[in-house]
Amino acid sequence: MSDSRQPLLKVRDLKVTFGKGRHEVSAVAGVSFDIYPGETLGLVGESGCGKSTTGKALMRIIEPSSGSIELEGSSLIGRKGKALRNFRTHMQMIFQDPISSLNPRRRVKDIVAEPLDCWKTVSGNERDVLVSDLLSKVGIDPKVYGNRYARQFSGGQCQRISIARSLAMRPKLLICDEMVSALDVSVQAQILNLLEDLKSEYGLTLLFIAHDLAVVKNVSDRVAVMYLGKICEIGPSDALYEAPAHPYTKFLLGAALEADPDSPMHNQVLEGEPPSPLNPPSGCRFRTRCPNATDKCASEEPQPQELAEGHFVSCHYPLTIQKK
Amino acid sequence: MSDAVHELLVVKDLSTTFTTMGGPLPAVSDVSFTLARNETIGIVGESGSGKTVLSRTIMGLQPRTNVTVTGSVLLNGNEMVGATESFKRALWGTEVAMVFQDPMTSLNPVMRVGKQIDESLRVRLGMSKQDAKTRAIELLELVGIPSPAQRYMAYPGQLSGGMRQRVVIAIALAGSPKLLMADEPTTGLDVTIQAQILNLLDDLKDRLKMSVVLVTHDLGVVATRTSRIVVMYAGRIVEIGSTRDVFSRHRMPYTRALLDSSPKVSNASHTRLVAIPGRPPNLLQLSAGCSFAPRCSFATDKCHKERPELQAADEPGHAFACWNPLPTTMEQQS
Ligand SMILES: Nc1ncnc2c1ncn2[C@@H]1O[C@H](COP(=O)(O)OP(=O)(O)OP(=O)(O)O)[C@@H](O)[C@H]1O
Ligand SMILES: Nc1ncnc2c1ncn2[C@@H]1O[C@H](COP(=O)(O)OP(=O)(O)OP(=O)(O)O)[C@@H](O)[C@H]1O
Ligand code: SF4
Ligand SMILES: [Mg+2]
Ligand SMILES: [Mg+2]
User: Fold this and answer.
1) Cα–Cα nearest to B17, from B3, B5, B4, B27
2) Which of A 228-267 lie inside 8 A of B, CB atoms?
3) Does the structure's ipTM exceed the value 0.90?
4) Among A295, A301, B265, B278, which is most exposed with the fewest C-beta within 10 angstroms?
5) Where exactly are the structural domains of chain A?
6) Which ligand 1 atom is nearest residue A52's CA?
7) CATH homologous superfamily for the domain B2-95+179-187+209-264+273-320
8) Which ligand sits closest to the CA of A248?
9) Which string of DSSP letters, residue by residue, matches B84-134?
C-alpha cells in the first residue's frame, strides 16, 4: 500500500545538533519518515521535542548534522547557492506568529509578491493579476486590502496573507509550523478550512506541525508523534488516535481535553516533565516516565516495528499487538 | 443582603470602560453572576471578549486612570468597586488571589522563587523569617514541586514553564485565599503539563475549600472542571448556566458556533469545521443591536437594531441573550 507509492519527501536518520561538548543538544536525534504526494502528515509532540527544528532542517534553514532528505528522489543535502534556492521554491514554510513573519511596513500585495519578485518569474501586469488571484483565494479582497500595510491586519488575516505568499511559487510541499496556534477557535476553523480547500485546489502536500492534538487529527492523514528528538510512533491518524501503541502517545492523547462534559476524566496523568535533551536517557528516551519500563528499556534502544500497515512504533512493549 | 451570606462572590451590573484615543471602550458591560463557596465557575470567550478585564476588575486591579468602573463586586461581603487601595490590599492574598497566564510576568526573574513566596507570607501574614521559609517549602510541596527545599533556591529562569506556574500558584495560596482567580492558567503549557496543573487546582480547591474562577478561551478546559459556565462576547455575558446546560442545551447561537468550530480529537480526519465568518467586533464601534449579529446566521433586522437582554431559559440558573434562540430540546422533538 504505502510502499507502492513514491514518496514526495523521503527523510532518513535526520539529525540536528546544537552547541558543542558539554552543551551539545541533540534536538533531532535521527528521525525517518516519508510524505506521500497529496497527503498531510501531522507532527505532534510537546514543547522542545524538536518539531520546529525538524521543519527548519527540511527547509535547510537550519543545517542538519547528518541524515538524508530527498524531494522527488533528488537529495537536498549538499546543495548550495543557486541549486539550493531553486529547490527551496518547491517547499515553503508558514510559521506560528503571523504578525511578525510579515514585514509591517510593506503593502499586502508586495508581501505576497515577494517570492515572485525575488525569482523574477513574472512581472508587470501578469504579476499583479497573479497576486490579486492569490489574495482572493485566501479570502482577502485585493481591491480593498491589497494596498494596505500588514500591521493593519488581525492575526487571522495575517495568516491568510502568509498562505497567499507561500503559494505564489506553486510549491509542492508546504510545512506549516503551529500556523493556527495563536488564533481564536472561530478564526482557526476558518484557516483550517481554507487550508483544506487550497490543498485540493493546488494539489499540495503538507507537513503539519502542531502541539494541538485535536487540530492535527482534523487535518492529517497520518500522524507522527515525537518525544525528545525522536519519532516514537507514526501511523494513519484514525488508527493511531483510536489505538495508540506507544505508552507516550497514550498519555498524550489522554491529556487532550475534549469540549464535552461527558468526556472521561483522565486520571492517568503523565507525571513529571521530559528530561533535558542535553542528557537524554539511555535506551528508550521515554523510559524515565514510562510505567511499563524494564531493564531492557534502559539498555536497548527500541527500533521501529510495524504493527499494522503503515503503523510503526518504537517500543519494546507496544500496547497493541504486532501483526503476524 | 442574603446573597452575600451564601455566595462568596456577587458581581452585579459590573461595567469597565477605558477612556482611549478612539473614545470610550466598553471592555466589560453589565456583567452579573454569583459564585458559591467551594464552587468553580468557568469564564469562556475569544480573545478580546473581556475575560481578563473582568477578572482584574473583580480583584480591583484596574489602572488608576482612564478607567471607569460601575456596578458592584461583593467579595465575601466586601465591596471592591470604589474601595481604597489600602482596603483592597488588605484583601489581596487572604480573600482573593490571582494566577495569570504568563508566569514570567508575575515572577521576579532576579529573585529566588523561595524568597518570592517568603515575601508574600511575611508581608501578608506577618510571619517571621524562619516560619516563612518553612511554610514556603511546604507550599512548594503542596503544589507538587519535587525536591522543594532545593527548588526554594532556584531562580524562575531555571524552572520549566509548568514549574513556574506551580510557583505562581504557591504564591497565590500563601495567604490561604477564599477565592482564586485563574486567568488562562494553562495556556501555552503542554497538554500533559496542563492536565497536571488543572488536576492540582481541582485538588487544592477541595483541600483548601476555595472557590475558583477559571478563565479560558478553551472550552475543553472548562468542560469537566466547572459546575457553571459564563460565555462572554464583546464584553457581555451572552449565556450563563450549569456546565451541562451550556454545553448541551445552549440557546445562544454564539455558544453553539464556538462549540462547532472547536476541533475534536474524536473527529475523523478531514472533518470540516463549522467556522464562524468574520471576527469579533471593534469595541469602539459597537452597534446598538446584538454584538454577534454581523456573524450570526440567525440574525434578523431586530438583532441589528436592538440589544437582547439576558433572559431566563427553562433550566434554573440558565440564561441567554438572543432574539432568535436555538430551539430547546423539547421544541426540537415536537
Ligand atoms: N538555535 C538553537 N540553539 C540551541 N538549541 C536550540 C535551538 N533551537 C532549538 N533548540 C533546542 O532544540 C530543542 C528542540 O526545539 P524545537 O524548537 O525544535 O522544539 P519544538 O518541538 O518545535 O517545540 P515548541 O512546541 O515549543 O515549538 C529544544 O531543546 C530547544 O531548546
Ligand atoms: N488598559 C486598557 N486600555 C484600553 N483598552 C484595554 C485595556 N485593557 C484591555 N483593553 C481592551 O479591552 C478588551 C478586552 O480585553 P481583555 O484582555 O479582557 O480580553 P480577553 O478576553 O482577556 O482576551 P484574551 O483571550 O486575548 O486574553 C480588549 O479590546 C482590549 O484591547
Ligand atoms: S520501550 Fe520501554 S520505556 Fe520505552 S516506551 Fe516502551 S515500555 Fe516504555
Ligand atoms: Mg516549535
Ligand atoms: Mg485575557
Assistant:
1) B27
2) 237-238, 241, 251-261, 263, 265-266
3) no
4) A295
5) 102-170
6) 22
7) P-loop containing nucleotide triphosphate hydrolases (3.40.50.300)
8) 3
9) -HHHHHHHBTTTEEEE-S-HHHHS-TTS-HHHHHHHHHHHHH---HHHHHH
